[in-house]
Design goal:
alpha+beta; seven-stranded antiparallel sheet; five-stranded parallel sheet; 16 strands
């Protein structure tokens, strides 16, 4: 284990913690090894599960720290030994926030969003409030699932109030975890009569949910790089969402994606990222291109992912610049965001297929 001034602590939550679910780990492996390859010009302390020993031993610039424990517990015990860190984690169980908080409390310089920014963007309702009247968003409200089912009547009242504003258009609702990733546990309520206590099987009593008006449209995202104050969009990405019953499942994407709403999507994503202080590094913003051309808004913001997201893997195949290295140089003040050339060469499609993440040029 080293703590040289130029050494950077690098890890990804699932590959460090020894996750065995292949549907999760294939994506995690693609993310972390692309980041490691981006940082070939740096000395790296790579924290990774011991099962990867044979894979990481051939990297000349990597000091592999093999562990067999949860990465958060490992960081609690070891973060103070390092000066710098860049990592990949998602919002599940507040992992993104908790990891960032531990690093900051141990005075580790991070090349990712601040803990406070992660906390704000992880909580979908807090994001909604932070960006209210700044960018277009679906109407949203938060509820707590109580064991007696009072939450059901509260949502029925909300639906009745929203529906009254436009009684001629049937109102559908989206229910999702207040803190979640991808399309995890997202439920579409097409008729308010479908709102039953069966949802207790998905959202346990005590959990908090976000209820949004459902807007028909096309799922997209924007990948950006931010220095914590200003952001620059890299690409517009098409998101592939499959509906299984009343649930949405994220299965992949295509980038860059051409749309007549590209400039508007870039503007909204940039404005949203810059509105929350401390979002920096590689960032993803999920948006929706509205199918209703009579609406005053063509593009709606859904959420901000203040972290590395799956499109990073696709972008690394076609970007004319080194994304990981650029993030470090930008946050170290070695380059200016105004001077970045974020051009791309080609198109990439990536899809989850069984337990693999398949990436191909198109």
């Amino acid at each position: 284990m080293t703590n040289e001034n130029d050494s950077i602590l690098v890890f990804e939550y699932f590959t460090a913690s020894g996750e065995k679910d292949r549907s999760i780990i294939s994506e995690a492996e693609a993310l972390i090894f692309d980041l490691v390859n981006d940082l070939k010009d740096y000395n790296i302390d790579l924290v990774i599960n011991s099962s990867y020993e044979d894979i990481v031993k051939d990297y000349e610039n990597v000091n592999a720290i093999l562990i067999d424990e949860d990465i958060i517990q490992w960081l609690e015990d070891n973060a103070s030994k390092f000066n710098k860190a860049i990592f990949i984690a998602a919002e599940n169980n507040n992992n993104l926030y908790n990891i960032t908080r531990i690093l900051e409390e141990n005075n580790v310089r991070t090349y990712t969003s601040s803990a406070e920014a992660c906390l704000k963007s992880s909580d979908k309702y807090q994001t909604y409030e932070e960006l209210f009247n700044i960018v277009p968003q679906p109407r949203s409200f938060k509820f707590k699932i109580d064991p007696k089912g009072y939450w059901k009547r509260a949502i029925e009242n909300l639906h009745e109030r929203w529906q009254a504003e436009d009684p001629l258009t049937p109102l559908k609702l989206i229910i999702k975890p207040l803190i979640g990733v991808d399309c995890e546990n997202i439920i579409l309520i097409e008729n308010i009569e479908d709102l039953t206590l069966d949802l207790d099987k998905i959202f346990v009593p005590g959990s908090r949910i976000l209820v949004q008006e459902y807007i028909e449209g096309e799922d997209i995202s924007v990948s950006l790089i931010s220095d914590g104050k200003k952001a620059i969009p890299i690409s517009l990405n098409k998101q592939f969402i499959e509906l299984t019953g009343d649930k949405g499942v994220y299965v992949g994407g295509k980038l860059p994606y051409e749309s007549k709403y590209k400039d508007e999507a870039f503007e909204i994503a940039t404005k949203a990222v810059e509105a929350i202080d401390g979002i920096k590094g590689f960032v993803g913003v999920d948006l929706l291109i509205n199918a209703d051309e009579k609406d005053i808004y063509s593009v709606y913001l859904l959420e901000i992912n203040s972290r590395f997201t799956t499109p990073y893997v696709g972008l690394n195949k076609i970007a004319n610049f080194n994304i990981g290295k650029t993030v470090i140089e930008l946050l170290d003040g070695e380059i200016s965001i105004e001077d970045l050339d974020v051009s791309l060469d080609g198109e990439v499609e990536f899809k989850k297929s069984g337990d693999s993440l398949v990436i191909r040029r198109v």
